[in-house]
Specification:
It comes from Azospirillum oryzae. The protein has twelve helices and twelve strands. By secondary structure, the protein is α/β, with parallel strands linked by helices. It has three domains: 11-87, Arc Repressor Mutant, subunit A; 100-169 and 275-302, D-Maltodextrin-Binding Protein, domain 2 (3-Layer(aba) Sandwich); 174-272, 3-Layer(aba) Sandwich (D-Maltodextrin-Binding Protein, domain 2), CATH 3.40.190. Helix 9 (211-218) links the parallel strand 8 and strand 9 (225-229).
């Protein structure tokens, strides 16, 4: 009991520690906490005295954690998450009675495939929830989960932070999509035709190369990428008028092929498949409303 009520033990110090661990910068930690830089510096000094370790060492413009700080990171984060759950726990959640807005980030390629069910329910009045959809790049998604502006991130996310939880929704692969009226190729497309026609490349971060180019390089060949776009759903519309190829997630490609009269072919090389997951901040794991959202996403994924 005496250890718990030790006057030197202040939960605000743990919040400062956690913010510094995330931002690696005193000014950004202060901004995240809504306090002054001097307050963060003072709290860090108290922490160093309490722990008997520097905890963070300045390296250029960054504050790098010491080995002791790295060992403390997970148990202190769990402590903060537990306190948050205890102080803000929801008793239950009824989506037909309670209003709630969820903010979800996922590429537009997955919005069309995965989210139509929950959006249809919301539109038909069965639910009192609303959904705000974003398409953030992977780094921005993780940051938005941390600062609380994002409830859920969905996509190919092989690397998450230790305070994020993950659930795999389904496995996906890529196929080739084109307009057979403009690209006179009969599926399955061969490697020669795949590299002969220009490509319109989807890219979450922009740029003109992707994992496809790595696979082609391993085969001793290359393709010509004529253009790239971050807007996956624009690609099929462009293909109705342009003699180009693209490589898209298979479920989106099938949806667009059926709607626009486009053709699908397996890729002329094996790329395997990958996991599409949803991730969220661990502070929301025990929330009934957030749990309802995750269950709803899992139900939609099971239908694919």
């Amino acid at each position: 009991m005496k250890a718990i009520h030790n006057p030197a033990l202040d939960l605000n110090l743990i919040k400062v520690f956690d913010a510094l661990l995330e931002t690696r910068n005193v000014s950004r930690a202060a901004e995240a906490l809504g306090v002054s830089q001097s307050a963060v510096s003072h709290a860090l000094a108290r922490l160093r005295t309490l722990v008997g370790d520097p905890l963070f060492v300045r390296t250029g413009n960054r504050m790098e954690p010491t080995p002791r700080a790295q060992r403390l990171a997970e148990p202190l984060r769990d402590l903060l998450v537990g306190a948050t759950r205890a102080l803000s726990a929801e008793e239950d959640f009824d989506p037909q009675r309670e209003e709630r807005n969820f903010t979800i980030s996922t590429p537009d390629s997955m919005q069309a495939v995965l989210l139509t069910g929950i959006l249809r329910d919301a539109a038909e009045g069965d639910l009192r929830v609303s959904v705000s959809l974003l398409s953030l790049d992977p780094d921005a998604m993780l940051n938005a989960l941390d600062d609380g502006t994002l409830d859920l991130a969905i996509g190919y996310l092989p690397e998450v932070r230790r305070w994020h939880d993950r659930q795999v929704l389904y496995r996906e692969t890529h196929v080739c999509l084109f307009n057979p009226a403009l690209v006179p190729v009969i599926p399955p497309i061969g490697l020669e035709d795949y590299t002969r026609y220009p490509h319109l490349m989807p890219s979450l971060r922009g740029g003109l190369t992707s994992f496809i180019d790595d696979e082609l390089a391993a085969l001793g060949t290359r393709r010509r990428v004529a253009a790239s776009t971050t807007q996956f759903l624009a690609i099929p519309m462009i293909l109705t008028q342009a003699p180009m190829l693209t490589s898209l997630p298979a479920r989106l490609a099938q949806l667009c092929a059926d709607a626009l009269g486009l053709a699908i072919s397996p890729l002329p090389f094996d790329i395997g498949d990958y996991e599409v997951s949803m991730i969220w901040h661990r502070r929301n794991t025990g929330s009934p409303s957030h749990g309802w959202l995750r269950q709803r996403m899992a139900e939609e994924a099971a239908k694919l």
